[in-house]
Amino acid sequence: LSGGDTYVSHGHQYDPNCVVRDPIDPLIEVHGQPRVRIPFGDLAARYMLNGMGYFNPHQSENYIMSAVAYVRFFFRYMLRTQPLLIWTWFWGAYATLWISLRTHWLPAMRDPMLVDDKVRSIAARAQATPSMVRKLNVLHVPSATNNPFRIARELWLDRAFFLLVSLFLAWQVVLHINIALPISPLWVFVPALIFMLPYAAYASSVRATVFETPLLTPTLAELIFKITGARRVVFGHTHQPKCEQVGPITLYNGGFWSRAFADPECTIRLGEQTFVWIHPAEDGSGRVAELCEWKAAEEMPVRSIYAETHSPVSEVSIRAGAGA
Question: Is the whole-model pTM more than 0.70?
Answer without folding.
Answer: yes
